[in-house]
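Two quick folds needed for the group meeting slides. Do the first one here.
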Amino acid sequence: MIRPLYSLLVIGAQPLLRRKLRRRGVAEPGYLEHVEERFGRYQHAAQSGRLWIHAVSLGETRAAAILLEALRRAQPDLRVLLTHGTATGRAEGRRLLREGDAQAWLPWDTPQAVQRFLAHFRPSCGVLMETEVWPNLAAACLARGVPLVLANARLSPKSMAQARRFSRLARPAYGALRAVWAQTEDDARRLASVGASVQGVFGNLKFDAAPDPLLLQMGRDWRSTSTRPVVMFASSREGEEVEFLRAIAGVQGIQWLLVPRHPQRFDEVAGLVAQAGRSVSRRGAWDGVPEPADVWLGDSLGEMPLYYALADAALLGGSFAPLGGQNLIEAAACGCPVVMGPHTFNFSEAAELALQAGAARRAGTMGEGVRTAVELVRDPPARTAAARAGERFAAAHRGAAAKTAQAVLALIER
């Protein structure tokens, strides 16, 4: 009885969800595109048999890109359906499409919308990236014989507690998955405890990402133009920038680089810098090289390797507020030492391994984090040692992409 009740609640929330889309669409017009796809209604005919990969947002889409590259190396004629939940995820996913591929919003989890989605696209197999397990979607795939798997899977202690609290809803959803391939042994244990069939621990796909060498070189070239050490706040989240600007007040001799996580906040963050009495220079306005300013603002997408190469050290966004932290693996692979705050539960094992490897340092507060980063960039031997440790750390944990691709293709063949 619990899933029908859940379905009624989701159906009843549809008007509120439409209103939410309209509000978000003011700042991010992408939310106003193809709105009816959210309800399982599609304008164009679709080919059946595509491999369906669901990557809800930007981070998951970047992980999906790594998996998709490995899949296409093994099967060049593979055709995929990419689905997303956020505008940034869909924009990033558009870059991955080839002729014969398709892209859509994943519908909200009502029985009717899910059934229309599956009947329209008729995928051969579904791959959910990292965390996205929905009760009606999982049940409908099981009923229609569509193998559904969870790849690069992770489950934090907090999410496990929530799943256990709603076990009558969550356990059948996880149990409907054909396979789960976890990032870590801890993730595997937590996922198994809520009913998932864990078939392997493959590691984190994000270790297999190769930074763009052209962006790395551009960042290094730009770094050589600064006479001051560069400290970056990478993938900052709402609320953290004000704390960061307060913490850097009075610190001299540092070039600050601020890169917000979400593009719809670029203008807002530029305004916060100005309100703090700091001059700001935005990446989008640079003509060849960074323009002088107290704070450089990275207001572009897809250029994180450039920013990490430009920086001497990076504070990790999402870790100084209780948000779980952002991906630190990319920074390590780019040779940029990381200073993390206390909240890294989204990447708990990667964070601990980076600490053990000497690629990252931990700080309890934003102020402590700024002081740690400044001390590091003012100590060139220590900074160089941390950068090299990061590169070794990233290289040592590669291999998840090949394992996951092999497992997906084997499932399709069966």
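Then this one, please, same format:
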Amino acid sequence: MTLLDRETADAWIARWDVQQEGYVPDREERFTALIDALEAAAGRPDPLVLDLGCGPGSLAARILDRLPAATVVAIDADPLLMALGRAAHADRDGLRFHTLDLREPGWAARLRLDRQADAAVSTTALHWISGADLRVTYRELATVLRPGGLFLNGDNLASEDVTPGLARLEAALCERERARRLSPEGAGAPEDWEQWWTAIAADPALAGLRAEIREEASGHHGSESGLLSTHAEALRDAGFGEVGTLWQRGDNRLLAALLTG
């Protein structure tokens, strides 16, 4: 794989963060709530934390900014995003990247952890995994998380199958707040997901990585497990005894689960 320089990686990750904030205006606030919960639940200054669907390491870096003695094991299947993360965060001793598919049985054992993880986190990632595969993901997670360990998932998760009226209100709240924060289309609207992938694929500095970019680089085609109930049921099936929402803005939630001891 072509080695990236730090400056190039930093620039693309900064652009990634802006693109993500276009979809999740409360992204930084959700990051803060997630890390607050992680710090409160860890029970030690040097927790071992798994970051599921880590992308280029935006959340992992923020965790280490707050908890510098932590070890964060960042996991994703996308080779380009992982290359950006490795290049940008090469100087962080507490951050390790693993290229693994969370849908495949056995991914947890391939981490070869030297102790059970204290917590696992994820943001805006796991809703792309189908309901059936999500059960695999959470069952695997339960094998490497300590009893009483915490899982935190920040994502837009709808409740329309259980409370359709409230779900409509949640969506309306999110849309109105997003409209207040974003410029009108064509007058400074932020780059979207497809535009980011198109742009990075055309960057001459990344020519050596193009073969690594997945064919559907810009092609997530709809949320496959975007329901809150899908995640809650899969977590309980995996052995998480308590599942609930710690923080919420409309359907933008911080879902939390404790593994049964």
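Slide caption for protein two: Strands lie at 48-52, 71-76, 95-99, 117-123, 145-156, 240-249, 252-259.
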